[in-house]
Amino acid sequence: MLGAPDPGSKITARSCPIPRCRSESNDKICQVTGYQPSIRIRTCCIICRMRQKWQQSLAVLKRVVLVLFVLWLAMSAVLAYAMRQSPEKFGHFMSHMPVISFLVLPFETLWTDARAGRLEVGSPAPDFQLHTLDKSDSVQLSSFREKKPVVLVFGSYT
Amino acid sequence: MYIQEAHPSDVWQMQSNIKDKVVFASPRNLDERANIAGSCVRNLGIKFPALIDDFQNTTEVAYTGWPDRLYLIDVKGNLAYKSKPGPFGFKPDVLGKMLEQVAR
């Protein structure tokens, strides 16, 4: 009869821990691997066990990925909130963030959104009057109207 | 337009600034800000006029200029170009192209 178990095999269909592998006769097909019992029972059980371990690992991996994703979302939300605070508060917050956060979190996207501002191209530029560096003169933005375009470069030394 | 410091040593010190020996604590008044601005202009060889924002950062808030940003205002007084916030959006070459268009 095909599929007769190897008399020397230590693992038989009846001793396989997978319930579906247990069978009264040897001509039934394993419900787990789909293999006919013409292969050695031991091999079939090994395949069953490997599949079982893989499925368990996959389940763990899915949970880990889900946790990491939720953590990533939470960190992104915290970062987005911090970006909307004053520069001092934001600076203090960032001074405690690891460098890897710049790579893992969507920093540029969140920053562009947080610092978008209210001004739009085409809208009137807010007027201002400020002193020059040496305080020898003051400059009013509106004085350049109808004369020449103006470039504003906002920045600091640090 | 010299504004609030981006990386003062007492708030968010950057290693690159330490390497470049640009280490300044947050200025406590307008005079201290002006001193740092003066160092910036001298050491970087900035030729165009530098203005200092008031200590309440009024202009920076109106333009959302922190930490750095570029604007182009046309002769009618309207915004012709507004860069994305720095450092990512600070692109002088893009500003240059916009300036050429406005100047025509």
Describe this structure in words.
The complex is a heterodimer of chains A (about 160) and B (about 100). Chain A is about 40% helix and about 5% strand. In chain A, strands 1-2 form a two-stranded antiparallel sheet. In chain A, a hairpin with a 6-residue loop joins strand 1 (about 130) and strand 2 (about 140). Chain A is built from four helices and three strands, in the order ααααβββ. In chain A, helix 1 (about 40-85) packs parallel to helix 4. Chain A is mainly α. Chain A has one domain (about 15-115, about 125-145). Chain B is globular. Chain B folds into two domains: about 1-65, no CATH class; about 70-105. The model of chain B has no long low-confidence stretch (mean pLDDT about 95). Chain B has helices at about 15-20, 30-45, 60-65, 90-104, and strands at about 70-75, 80. Classes of the chains: A mainly alpha (about 160), B mainly alpha (about 100). The interface between A and B is large, with 45 and 68 residues. Strand 3 of chain A pairs antiparallel with strand 1 of chain B, so a sheet runs across the interface.
How are the strands of the largest sheet of chain B arranged? Answer: 1-2
- Biggest interface pair, counts: A-B, 45 and 68 residues
**Within the largest sheet of chain A, what's the order of strands?**
1-2
Helix count, DSSP H or I runs of 4 or more residues of chain B: 4
> What about the largest sheet of chain A?
2 strands, antiparallel
Report the strand count of chain A: 3
Radius of gyration of chain A: 35 Å
Shape, per Cα inertia axes of chain A: rod-shaped
User: What is the SS-derived class of chain B?
Assistant: mainly alpha
Q: Return residue spans of chain A where pLDDT drops below 50 for at least 5 consecutive residues.
A: 1-13
Mean pLDDT of chain B: 94
Helix content of chain A: 40-55%
Summarize the structure.
With 158 residues, chain A is mainly alpha-helical.
